[in-house]
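User: Please predict structures.

Assistant: First:
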Amino acid sequence: MEIEKEKDVGEMYVRFQKDLEFVQMLANPYYISYLVQRNYFQDQAFLNYLKYLNYFREAEYIKFIQYPQCLKILELVQKERFRQYLVIPEVARDICDQQYFHWLDLGQVEKPKAENNEVVNQENNENPQTDTFNQDAQPQPTDAIQEEFN
């Protein structure tokens, strides 16, 4: 009896490890693209598995997550409209770029602002500049995703 109980606990631990690894792989936009290319998101059993993985949002399990963006992606891939965006090849790259710039910003110390709320260029004390990124960029597929899902 005790041997069976230990076996069950061991199997549950292995299942948990596999679930945790899979959830965290969702933080990789290129892995999501791989899943899209192989039509995983059209398989109802796979979609049910994604719903099952929502238990990682609970306090008891969230402490094991090392890549918190995977939980946002887990939420988004359960929405049909988001899955439709994923078939666009550029979306994986755009999501990757967004993640990169998000993490890059987390490591930055807040820049001092002048009285007119413009960022001061501290490197060479030139005129104040606004803190914007690529103002001339064309809207990207993920712009629509951000507007809809954020």
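Second:
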Amino acid sequence: MSKKIELVYGYDGESSVVAEGFDSAAVCWFKESKKIKSGSCIISLPGGDVKYFVKVYEIPFFKGLVRRCFNHKIKNIWEVHCKLYRQGVNVPKPVALMKKKSKKAVCEYIISEWLEDAEDLRSLESSEDVFILQAARLLAGIHRLGIVHGDFKYANLMYSTQRKELFSVDFDGSKFKSTEPLFSKDVARFLVSMSEAGVSVKHRDGFLHEYAGLVDVCVEVLSGRVAPHIKKIINRHKIKYPERY
């Protein structure tokens, strides 16, 4: 296997050129490491106490448009992550985008801060008002930047017990598209996630009212927009996850 690896982008707060903590020695370790598998994992660099979360994207050696589509998607995920962090939205700090080539495929790695003290909402008493209101503010903050999350749900919201704040993760479905239908779909996805977690109608309404106020839209109008999406998502989940219903 070829061990060519390069630092494509690093995050320094502005230009996203230099990767903090990822110097040539770190890149060399990354190249040799057998700990980095497909999917995702947590790593620590030699001699360091800081842990990183690594998301791995394996791209087969397709040709033409298919290959370019994969490359564009991963770069888009990285750019969304950086913009959200730069604008003060609660997301783990992006660290680096790296690429490793072999004979059969190209692997790209998005490396970010590991929220060691955090748990996702599925494992918490997430019907509490504090989580619901923070989730509404988090989603509204993402949408105000013209970004669609694409998979805003309990499993992709991490609560830091140390910072007492929610963090949004997993931007694989994100888009730089300020379109009302996609924003409404994000809202609907979270409302379904709340329902599947057994959250009361009262708290779901609380989320909707808080979000509507932050994006300056009438609650009745918003409810009408999300209703068709909720129906579609529920019908799909009844087939895919029958144990939830």
